[in-house]
Amino acid sequence: MLRNSQSKIKRKIDKYEIGRTIGEGTFAKVKFARNSETGEPVAIKIIDKDKVLKHKISEQIKREISTMKLIKHPNVVQLYEVMASKTKIFIVLEFVTGGELFDKIVNHGRMREDEARKYFQQLINAVDYCHSRGVFHRDLKPENLLLDAAGNLRVSDFGLSALSQQAENDGLLHTACGTPNYVAPEVLNDRGYDGATADLWSCGVILFVLLAGYLPFDDNNVMNLYKKISMAQFTCPPWLSFGAMKFITRILEPNPLKRITIPEILEDKWFKKDYKAAVFYEKEDANLDDVEAVFKDSEEFHVTEKKEEQPTAMNAFELISMSKGLNLENLIGVKEGYKKETRFSCKCTANEIVKKIEQAAKPLGFDVHKKNYKMRLENSKAGRKGNLNVATEVFQVAPCLHVVEVKKAKGDTLEFNKFYKKLSTSLEDVVWKAEGEEEKEEDEDEEDDDDDQIKCCSQSV
Question: Cα(380)–Cα(356) distance, rounded to whole angstroms?
Fold first, then answer.
């Protein structure tokens, strides 16, 4: 039988099984992963330590991790834990399935006021909480706002965030950062700015984009763009309600001292419609010890990266081709003559199957040679046609279902059939039976106690 499927390499970091790449940046990749202990899906941000050192961004990475550990809010992507190997840093994050808010705008255009208001309310809830913890995001934009399975907003990517402790003697931040179209005027003038009011400006730009479907400040010439931002030169589209226009104008106020504050936002008539405050359990202060440990070059703090080969995957066509024609009974038990090859299906994991076969074969006098999910069983005693050699391989049909192929590689066919009968008896707790198969076998045993054929999930070839 021809098989096009190839075995897969499974990569594992500590207890997490690593899957496909779901995001990629200059210094990091984001991989889908699954907690092998709980089955919970997560996203793991993998950062190369050499790149961090080369570009001198260790403090920035530390700040991002520390910031996310401080924030535990239903509208912020959660950080579960942080780990490191000798060469990489692993940030384990909540896996958010609904995509970016930016994609929703690109695919569907501007939103109705009620829909935009809901997302904006959730954004303000998140930003207000961050500010209360002394955290300023500094790069708020639709691309950094994700949606969960229930359609709720989640703020992500705190890579450019700042903590209140970073403010200089004047109480202001002085690092200009963020995405130009969303940056507040005071960030551009290089005279220092308040992180909270700068974040609110970005929130105002986001609300405008949600309602209008385009940016309030945009120009191919960077200097012209900065001029428009500094003077707040924008025009609301005519389809906006008067309340929405007035509200946006209060947020996109170029003078940060006159700009609307979060307490004032919470009292605004347009904003308050159908408003729901975030309800969540406030956890104890975050422990940041593991953040420091990540950057220590000590083996005791390192997790291990493992690569394990997966069983060869088997698709439906290959499964059918194993049977005779389309008669799937050949996969779940038949009575036939002596065979040189047979199969059984099993709901155990691939590793459990290999272990069970090894435990069953050794007492029967077989030496076991393993290579990933293939095994060669060699009988130390010579039979009628020399030593009996048996080859086995585990194939994955589905995550919870495997097919095990057992075939004679060398020796006498009768001896192989006797061996397989003893093997299958030892594997009764492993072999999967179709519904009603056990009762059928009991009836057949009563009719023919001397039956030498295997009745559990086998196929003759």
Answer: 20
Q: What DSSP letter does each residue of 59-116 carry, written as one string?
A: HHHHHHHHHHHH---TTBPPEEEEEE-SSEEEEEEE---S-BHHHHHHHH-S--HHHH
Domains of the chain: 8-95 (3.30.200.20), 98-281 (1.10.510.10), 313-447 (3.30.310.80)
Annotated active-site residue in 50, 114, 128, 139: 139
CB 327 within 8 A of CB 335: no
Among 243, 259, 240, which Cα is nearest to 251's? 259
Token output for 375: 């095994």
In one letter, which amino acid is 432? W
Residue with tokens 């947020």: 251
pTM for the model stands at: 0.65
In the block, residue with structure tokens 């579960």: 80
CA atoms within 13 A on the CB side of 297: 4
128 is catalytic: no
Question: What DSSP designation does 224 have?
Answer: H
Question: CA 157, CA 176: separation in Å to the nearest integer?
Answer: 17
The pLDDT tens digits for 277-335 are 888 776 655 666 666 666 666 555 567 666 666 677 766 666 655 554 434 444 444 44
* pLDDT per position as a tens digit, 47-82: 888 888 887 878 888 888 888 888 889 999 998 888
Q: Which amino acid is at 93?
A: L
